[in-house]
Amino acid sequence: MRTVLLTGFEPFDKEPVNPSWEAVRALDGQRVGDAIIVARQLPCVFGAAITGIEALLDELKPDVVIAVGQAGGRTELSIERIAINVDDARIADNAGAQPIDVTIAAAGPAAYFATLPIKAITRDLRAAGVPAMVSQTAGTFVCNHVFYGLMHALAQRGNAQVRGGFIHIPYLPEQAARHPGAPSLALDTLIAGLRVAVATTLATTDDVREQGGQLH
Amino acid sequence: MRTVLLTGFEPFDKEPVNPSWEAVRALDGQRVGDAIIVARQLPCVFGAAITGIEALLDELKPDVVIAVGQAGGRTELSIERIAINVDDARIADNAGAQPIDVTIAAAGPAAYFATLPIKAITRDLRAAGVPAMVSQTAGTFVCNHVFYGLMHALAQRGNAQVRGGFIHIPYLPEQAARHPGAPSLALDTLIAGLRVAVATTLATTDDVREQGGQLH
Amino acid sequence: MRTVLLTGFEPFDKEPVNPSWEAVRALDGQRVGDAIIVARQLPCVFGAAITGIEALLDELKPDVVIAVGQAGGRTELSIERIAINVDDARIADNAGAQPIDVTIAAAGPAAYFATLPIKAITRDLRAAGVPAMVSQTAGTFVCNHVFYGLMHALAQRGNAQVRGGFIHIPYLPEQAARHPGAPSLALDTLIAGLRVAVATTLATTDDVREQGGQLH
Amino acid sequence: MRTVLLTGFEPFDKEPVNPSWEAVRALDGQRVGDAIIVARQLPCVFGAAITGIEALLDELKPDVVIAVGQAGGRTELSIERIAINVDDARIADNAGAQPIDVTIAAAGPAAYFATLPIKAITRDLRAAGVPAMVSQTAGTFVCNHVFYGLMHALAQRGNAQVRGGFIHIPYLPEQAARHPGAPSLALDTLIAGLRVAVATTLATTDDVREQGGQLH
């Protein structure tokens, strides 16, 4: 049986909840075809978040890893294309650290591309009625940090067959209700969407070629 | 028993559904305290939409009327403050008409304020976890047209005790999935929100004074 | 010789300058055809701003009045369509007042339409390379307050032949430099644009019928 | 004497002009301290644009290279942080090609960071009253393509002392006048801003540590 690891984050930025944890924990233990989903929470802390996901790789030996994080202000599921080797924190993390222009892995490359089928996931989400878009940047906070750390760990271990990536999700409606003007998606939509992302990843060997870029 | 009339529109602008009709029809026949909700559909057609709502006033003699319409691109329930006496259509309506700078009621005033407790509704929606905002413009298409026609009809009939207004709602997620970047709210959230709007209206005689304006 | 009164505001909301005053004062004393422009500053204060513009009507007996104000966050010259009879202040004015849901003129109508040729102005601005759009709301702060007060004063005096309206303008670049993400227009562009608006108003008796509405 | 190469693009996407070429050509031949600026135009064509900038490196042996491109819809000068090794074209380039998920350099790394002092440039632009922001993505069209090709060429030639990067700039006002709602900056502002970017680069050995990241 294949194992799919989904990670979500603890709340940060003064929010009482983090939709990424609320969504992935609802999928914990669920079967998708021949695979089982395991959901775990990561701290919103530079360093500790990567240590945490590395320990989960050792413990669970997953075949697929999708890290999920909150993107307050985005409207859709953002399927991230690339993780970059820098921390540049606009706010402090949950341990009070605010690194600026710090390299994540000293000997690591400038970036890693996700190895999920990001175009097929986007296509299947839209077909399922879930708003989705390929994103060209995961930012420079703890989400990008974990995404980079995950891909670096997989590369270092020679686990090329383990596929990994990151999906940003909007606020929940109850969060947006306290941020006038902010978009949101219902928890049910997020859960259904992440389940589609898992199923598509498991079913797709080679990604489709569909346009998902930006002019700038 | 008091009667609350909720109207929704048929689909327009090439959409297969209109969230306003999907949401209000789910509330048709429901009780809210001592009141009953009646939901009806209006055509997305200049002229016919007002004729339709006037006929519903005659038929149902409602105590409260909330017209609801789709606002593709908005993120929240928009509780409209004011209806203005002009049609200026960016696209054709469902009958092919596209009036530009045409007065809705020749002898009517420039505008009518909603007589719903728009601030209390916004406050109660947010408290219920439903994203909401007071809006200063309902546009110049069929939504504003019906809103103006409703308020003008109530004023003409001397029905000052009948309260009326308009609420714009975002796309459903399945619509937003075909409009990359567009925000949306789940149907359940919309239904729950409109039910709150009805309950607050029935329970509120004098609106609260809470800030809901815009600098520009 | 005809007289065109342009008003701008003093700075507010902690800004060191107000682009509306910077732009209109550059046009003070300029000739446009057979007309002369007179530029004056208004306080960003509820009540006093209307008293100020009423005094200017008495003093200058202008043929055209265009009040101009800052709209931080907008991208274009916004040619306002309608002024509404309510103050609802998101922040305090320069005298510390923050009225909420207060009627501007107790016996006044709900709204007044601008009597400028708003469509012709928008068309001519675009043709001159100046970004412009018709706007359906001037907000509920001091800008809308002055716009309503101006139109009410003209109506009260029976000065139907005096045309009046309001144009919102974006930040200057040096203001936007302190508001990351905010759009702006250069002072030269604003000045050129307001001059076009004056010339078009003087040259236009009946406005053109060109689409300038919004769906919502 | 040091040489600074500024490149701009020919028009694309049906625009009559490209602000990047209009701005850089105004700086051609100008002195900044002990350096001289040379401005050249690149085609908006995948492949040919990189061939073009490589030829300019050979011909001019510049000490600093700043490629500049149009970002219609952005509000500010965007100082790009990173170039990624993929083409994913939302529209066809000027030769009709529309590559999707094609690697730019087969043996190249996933990304290159700009070697310009992006934080010092952003700080100095703002101090000069020019709206500016660090950007985490240059998109996946010809701008990112040239940016990646430039950094790859510099790395391949062992020209570590030559600094390179990319700056995206908004529409000109006359372009925005044909795209209702689009932000813009005046040509004078763009020229002044690029001159600041050149001067800061020449004067700065080690970049400053100032926050310029994004949460997502």
From TrEMBL, chains A, B, C, D:
Class of the enzyme per the UniProt entry, highest EC level: hydrolase
Enzyme Commission (EC) number: 3.4.19.3
Keyword Hydrolase: yes
Catalytic function, reaction form: Release of an N-terminal pyroglutamyl group from a polypeptide, the second amino acid generally not being Pro
PROSITE patterns recorded: PYRASE_CYS (PS01334), PYRASE_GLU (PS01333)
Active-site feature positions: 80, 143, 168
Subcellular locations according to the entry: Cytoplasm
Gene3D superfamilies in the cross-refs: Peptidase C15, pyroglutamyl peptidase I-like
Alphabetical list of SUPFAM superfamilies matching this protein: Pyrrolidone carboxyl peptidase (pyroglutamate aminopeptidase)
InterPro entries found in the cross-reference section: Peptidase_C15, Peptidase_C15-like, Peptidase_C15-like_sf, PGP-I_bact-type, PGPEP1_Cys_AS, PGPEP1_Glu_AS
TM helices/strands, residue ranges: none
Keywords associated with the record: Cytoplasm, Hydrolase, Protease, Thiol protease
Organism domain of life: Bacteria
GO molecular function, one term: pyroglutamyl-peptidase activity
Coiled coil: none
Subunit-level organization: Homotetramer.
Family membership noted in the UniProt record: Belongs to the peptidase C15 family.
NCBIfam families assigned to the protein according to its UniProt record, in alphabetical order: PRK13197.1, pyro_pdase
PANTHER family: PROTEASE FAMILY C15 PYROGLUTAMYL-PEPTIDASE I-RELATED (PTHR23402), PYROGLUTAMYL-PEPTIDASE I (PTHR23402:SF1)
Function summary: Removes 5-oxoproline from various penultimate amino acid residues except L-proline.
Name of the featured protein: Pyrrolidone-carboxylate peptidase
Gene: pcp_2
